[in-house]
Fold this protein.
Amino acid sequence: MKFKGKSFIAIVLTPEPPFPDWFKEIDRIIARSPGFFIDRPIILDVRGSKIPIDELEDLLGGLTQRSVRVMGIDGVAGTRLKPGMPPSFSGGRLTSDVDVPEPAGEADRKSNGAAETAPDSRTAAKGTGKAAKSASAKATEPSKINGTSKGDGGEPVVETPSGPASFTDGSSIVITEPVRSGQSILHPDGDVTVIGSVSSGAEIIAGGSIHIYGALRGRALAGVSGKDSARIFCSKLDAELVSINGLYKVADDFDGTLRNVPAQIRFENETLVFEELI
Amino acid sequence: MSNATVVVVTSGKGGVGKTTSTAAIASALAKEGYQVCAVDFDVGLRNLDLIMGAERRVVFDLVNVVRGEASIKQALVRDKKLDNLFLLPASQTRDKDALTEEGVASVINELRMYFDWVICDSPAGIERGATLAMRYADEAIIVSNPEVSSVRDCDRIIGLLDAKTKVAEDGNRMPKHLLITRYDVERAKAGDMLATDDVVDILSVPLIGVVPESKDVLKASNVGVPVTVSDENSPAAKAYTEATRRLLGENIPVTIPEEKRSLLGKFFKGRAA
């Protein structure tokens, strides 16, 4: 017999008191998109709230009434949970925000929108769905992406395509300004293009390829959703770390001749191939 | 009734010359005839009062004003030399948690009515004190030394300026100016420092001035007179004055300090810069 590990993306709901208001928000989402919570793995995150078990029971009851089935609870020790409650979950790492469905017109605008529209969609998602989290038995992503989704300084430009059904539709985003130290651009669904430099201490994480029209001085992690064919392009290679599909190389291990020249990095035969772009 | 431009002087890293630059630029602006107020946001580690030579006249401070324990007019300390230059000192006995966002907003708004320029001296770091100092600014002066660590910290601060300030939240872009300080002519020559071009390239912020590392600055700080007042003809003072004129919108080229050991300089054995 063989046990397999598989990682899934779960929606993490963080109840915010007062709970009646929070439920109103949930109801609003359900009213707009009746199927939003159906057949989705949902984790209830009550970390830090020290919620009494009775209140938790009420919360779960309220969610069941709305046909929202919670598969696990994060932030309460398993021993405190009552029989019949979903099991305790911990660990997991943040991925991108899940967009809450919007009325049709707005949704269109958003999926086409570039980085500039990200803050709006983020607030929309924050009110309710908060961040999606991968509840994984065995992590398949590179460990590098730990906790990167929220660099405080940056507007972490997290843009996932809207529409509840798809997490991946290969959209790309364009960032039109320099990415500063401490900022993190996370876009697990497609390509990221930066017009400007990526500073030392900044990082770009993309499901697809990364294109930088400027100097890459920070970290670039391409193909994080398991895409070998992703590449990294930059007009000036001075990176701290590059990675494609979890395979990474730090600056110390780079070929010195490619420093400060336009370069591309691709994945071939389990190694990273660096090439000068002419 | 005027409506001040609020400028934050910030850097992320400590010891790069924020406070010295605040004092020098505020004095230079005052010398141009503007009504100027320098605000020390470094609650708990205040220094601006020393650099400006006002430490013996501080009665109330920023925290008193934020908490409504004193009025702004009571807390403002007038400069000894320049009638139109004021200091709003920080509290030395409190810490940065004593500042509230609403309190700072109301103080800045009130200062806007009395002055032409409000220059905020930010504490080092990216925590509460620093974010509150930049929160309500209209423009920013980023102070960097030509060192990699300082440049990286500045980069981080620029990111915050574009994310966490009122201007940024209103969807606008805060004008930023880069001031390179403690530029050592000899080390630059030997290639031990980042070149100014590299710093400008990395930060992509327009350069407002390059201030040479100088004994005049240290001396001026210790006697409590900003270098732009104490020794107008020193290279550092000239650099600050030039930076101030650029801040005022004049379009003059930035002078990069060079080794100018004139005959006279050799004569006095002193390093000119």
Observations:
- Residues 7-136 of chain A form a domain with the Alpha-Beta Plaits fold (CATH 3.30.70.260).
